[in-house]
What does this fold into?
Amino acid sequence: MALFALVSAVFVFLIWGKFRYDVVAFAALILAAVLGLVPKDRVFSGFGHPAVVIIALVLIVSRGLSRSGAIDLLAGRVIDASRGLQAHIGIMAGLSAALSTAMNNVAALALLMPLDIQASRKAKRSPALSLMPISFASILGGMVTLIGTPPNIVIATFRENALGEPYGMFDFAPVGAAVAVVGVLYVALVGWRLVPKDRSRYDAVKQLEELRGYVAEVGVNQSSPFLGKRLGDLEKLVEQNEVQILGLVRRGRRLSGMALEEELRKSDRIVLEGAPQAINDLAVAADLKLSVSRKRKRLASETLDMVEAVVPAGARIVGRSAMDLGLLARQGVTLLGISRSGLRIRDRVRKSSIHPGDILLMLGPKGQMPDVVHWLGCLSLAERGLEVTQHEKASVAVGAFVAAIVAASLGWVYLPVALAAVVALYVVLRIVPLNELYESVEWSVIVLLGSMIPLSIAMEASGGTALIANQVVAWTEGMPTVAVLALLMVITMTLSDILNNVATALIAAPIGVDIANRLGANPDAFLMAVAVAASCAFLTPIGHKNNTIILGPGGYKFGDYWRMGLPLEILVLLVGIPMILLVWPL
It folds into this structure.
């Protein structure tokens, strides 16, 4: 009962969302170990579990496919801004689903989203009309293969423990492909029309342009009280006047980063950004002389670059401010504005805590911004330049990955070993540089999974899952087995909309097998039902990271998702259940 209570508490904390899911899971694991609920030799066994290893390797391989430029070459040939909206959504959704069968669906969306935004701007339409269909399609595509989405990997390895043999690479395809095809047709033909009318006129990137102020260079008068003091000493006055320091120009050379620590000299020029009147008020208050004033675009074209980036869940900057990270001091980059669900934040942006889904407008040294965006854990909304990709290595990257999948599917090589060989090749060929190797892994998911696996095993061994299964069977007494299967899918879908989908799969999989055993049904049917349902997070922006990523760029509200998502989830049930019964008879 103690373990049941602990897992129930984890469940409550995950729904609450006050603390990060990986922190909650790891704390629960340690508490279970201290209380003796998990054997000491099994406490950290989850971190060596095949599911954990495969997920980490798939994330690195996805980074390699992205950096190789293979996806850019493919996308560039099929995306055309001159197409009609429905044709554009159909092609983008189909491409998104197809990519997600072979790579992490978050990576697939991250590659396609900037292209879609650029196409929307060229066609003079809101990206809100196409981003949600593309996001949903990427989630649907992940259902088709073992490596398409983490829940499938969890279900496959759980089957090995429960039934003696894991699912293969394409065992999910008959059900997953049917659901994906019907789902993509729905979002392309009907779903996009359900986007609220006011969102269809929203353009987050264009909105951020209104936050772009003016840049001015001000000199330091001989009588200024700040002469000989640190540039950083001006910050309090700068904040009061809602102006930002972009850097310091000394002897014709722009200083950034540690410029705040420099002592001001009479010949220095301080680079400021803000409204003209605000800059003038600051100059009067600090006894500075206004020398040169230029519009932003001109300055950016010379030495600075301006980028818009969206903040995904789990990014380094989530829950912190630009000042907390020392963005200006450490990277020489200024945060100019934030767009949050249609709201423009300009005041005190450096001290504003950043939320998942926010779009950040940043200004910094030209050529350095892609690295800064990556360091923050954000995704750029601009199309990637050729310098970021390595098109000459695209064929090698794709060929190695396809060879590994074929070898693993035919049983020649153990899947984790095959993927590890691909990763090793990518590192040797510098398709994935060493400094990006570990950054490619979403460690919060790894910690969550590594922590939850021992708890899940202990829960099953203690009879906790059997207790839940007995209760479900009692509630559905007299109902046909297919109705119980449908109920399990509905419950799992609901959990996936508010929980991390990996946690949902870990909780629902053992319960599904126990229910099947009590009903004398085929466990595979119930495991497939859990796999499909755990990936169906279409009602909220928090159920899946892809839904969070599009929140800001699409200008969506929390309540916008269910309009397109609820019919899609019903459609998944209507298509998924008959396919499960056909392929995995009860």
